[in-house]
Structures are given as structure tokens and as C-alpha cells.
């Protein structure tokens, strides 16, 4: 008896495939990524992956863009008003969907080895930088917002990496507390 596949609409299919790509890479690394593995994870025929993306590079670029937007959306940074809400939201965003961060770090490391992915990773950092600037402006910061956004994002990037490495949540909360204090001093 053959594997059962499901039929999905165009928009749903594309999102399902990029989410499945993120899951496969976060579990198996880039070496485990094949169209067949993505299709199996999504429960669809592997020809659907080729139809939507054509190449592995296009699939990974789309998945990276999707993962960044999902990560940004999950932080809720634009609406945070207290230190506790700031720390809770950020910790939840990295612990509730760790596959998003693991996938992004896999891509960052791959870009170091493969120049084909450097532009995609540069866009990742540009997107996070822009989002941090927007968040700080909405929090009332003026002056050198770009510089503060770089510092905030670098700290958050480190917190995420430490989470992936297994640093205790209390330690990460302490780093977020220190970061909040820096932000408040600049606002």
C-alpha cells in the first residue's frame, strides 16, 4: 500500500513546504534536507516541492525568509511595555518554536561555507535590524536608534544562541533584564 498524500491549495502548500523545510533542517541539518524529506514531513508528493521551488537554494531562501518573519511575529516586541513582558515574550518566542532559531543558525553557518547563501543571510540580519529600529522608535527612543538597535539585536542573537546551546532560562532572563535596563536608559 502506498503512502497517502494530501491535496493542499497553492498558498497553503507553499507555507506547508517552507514550514516543513524549517522542521527538517532543524532536526537533521542541511545534509538531511531533500525534496523527498520535505514532502514526507508535509505529507505531500515530492513533485510539489520541485513545482513550487525548483531548486534547493530557492526552497531554503523562501524558508529562511519565512522563519525570520515567524520569529519576528512571535516576539511581540512592538507592543511590550514592561521588563517582565519583554523577557517573557522573548523567552517564549525562542522556547515555543526552537526550530525557527535552529534553522536560522544552520543557514548562517552554511552561508559561511557557501557563498550562495550569503545574500539571504545578509537579508536576515537587515530584516532583524530594521525591526529592532522600528521597535525602539515605537518605544519612544530617539537619537542614534540604529546604533542601539545593533546592540539590542546582537544581544538578542547571543541569547538565542545560548538558548540553543542549553544555557539555563534563568541566566537568559538575567541577560534580558540587563538589556531592558540598557534600552530604558536610552529611551
Number of helices: 9
Largest sheet: none
Q: Give the overall form.
A: elongated
**H-E order:** HHHHHHHHH
What proportion of the residues is helical, as a percent range?
over 70%
The gyration radius over C-alpha positions equals 18 Å
Name the poorly predicted regions.
Answer: 1-5
The count of strands amounts to: 0
Rounded mean pLDDT score? 88
- End-to-end distance: 63 Å
Class per helix and strand makeup: mainly alpha
Question: What share of residues are in beta strands?
Answer: under 5%
Task: Give a short summary of the structure.
The protein has about 190 residues and is an all-alpha fold. Helices cover about 80% and strands about 0% of the residues.
Detailed description of the structure:
The structure is a single chain. The protein is 78% helix and 0% strand. It is mainly alpha-helical and 187 residues long. Helix 1 packs across helix 2. The protein is elongated and about 55 Å long.
Helix and strand arrangement:
Layout: H1 10-28, H2 35-42, H3 46-53, H4 56-75, H5 83-96, H6 98-113, H7 118-138, H8 145-165, H9 169-186
Helix pairs in contact: 1-2, 1-4, 1-6, 2-3, 4-6, 4-7, 5-9, 6-7, 7-8, 8-9
Amino acid at each position: 500500500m502506498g503512502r497517502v498524500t494530501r491535496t493542499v491549495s497553492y498558498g497553503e502548500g507553499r507555507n506547508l513546504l517552507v514550514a516543513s523545510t524549517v522542521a527538517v533542517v532543524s532536526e537533521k541539518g542541511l545534509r538531511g534536507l531533500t525534496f523527498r524529506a520535505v514532502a514526507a514531513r508535509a505529507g505531500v508528493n515530492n513533485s510539489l516541492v520541485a513545482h513550487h521551488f525548483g531548486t534547493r537554494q530557492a526552497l531554503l531562501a523562501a524558508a529562511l525568509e519565512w522563519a525570520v518573519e515567524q520569529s519576528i511575529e512571535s516576539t511581540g516586541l512592538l507592543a511590550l511595555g514592561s521588563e517582565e513582558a519583554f523577557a517573557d515574550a522573548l523567552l517564549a518566542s525562542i522556547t515555543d518554536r526552537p526550530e525557527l532559531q535552529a534553522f536560522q543558525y544552520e543557514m548562517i553557518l552554511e552561508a559561511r561555507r557557501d557563498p550562495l547563501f550569503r545574500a539571504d543571510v545578509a537579508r536576515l540580519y537587515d530584516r532583524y535590524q530594521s525591526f529592532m529600529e522600528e521597535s525602539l522608535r515605537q518605544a519612544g527612543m530617539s537619537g542614534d536608534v540604529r546604533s542601539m538597535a545593533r546592540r539590542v539585536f546582537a544581544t538578542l542573537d547571543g541569547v538565542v544562541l545560548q538558548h540553543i546551546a542549553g544555557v539555563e532560562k534563568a541566566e537568559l532572563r538575567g541577560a534580558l533584564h540587563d538589556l531592558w535596563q540598557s534600552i530604558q536608559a536610552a529611551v
